[in-house]
Amino acid sequence: MQIRRIGQWSSSGITTATRLVIRDEVAYASFWAGLGGGERPSVDFSRDVVIAVASGQRATGGHSIAVERVTRSGAGLAVEVVETMPGPGCVSTQALTQPVDVIVVAAADLKTWSFSDESRPQACQ
């Protein structure tokens, strides 16, 4: 399925690991307000859903999270999430981070979803 990325941040304020499928404007407005992400992009919830994934709080920089792929799985969505972290020998900032990725997909007709997670260390030189 085609993914439209509407936001990706390393400092989101979301301190716990989160996997969300947002299906209406009220829930979307509430979630976006918690991000402090500026003006909220418009979403047509008659056609689309918002998917948000967050790593939770990390003790250093160099962490990221991304929805890599979304596919239809029967009557639902299968969401593949990749978390990246500093690999051995990587130098990273000593600052708290809260990585998050927010996407939109055309899947308002689907009623179930599943998330699969993969962790990948960064290669450093």
Description of the molecule:
There is one protein chain. The chain is mainly beta. The chain has one domain. The protein has one helix and seven strands; from the N terminus they run E-E-H-E-E-E-E-E. A four-stranded antiparallel sheet has the order 1-6-3-2, covered by helices on one side.
- Our estimate of the beta-strand percent is 35-45%
Radius of gyration: 15 Å
Question: Which regions contain 5 or more consecutive residues with pLDDT less than 50?
Answer: none
Largest sheet: 4 strands, antiparallel
The computed structural class is mainly beta
- DSSP helix fraction: under 10%
State the distance separating the first and last CA atoms: 34 Å
Q: What is the averaged pLDDT score?
A: 92
- The tally of beta strands, per DSSP, is 7
| Count of distinct structural domains | 1
Q: What is the number of helical segments per DSSP (H or I, 4+ residues)?
A: 1
- The ordered string of helix (H) and strand (E) elements is EEHEEEEE
Shape: globular
Order of strands side by side in the largest beta sheet? 1-6-3-2
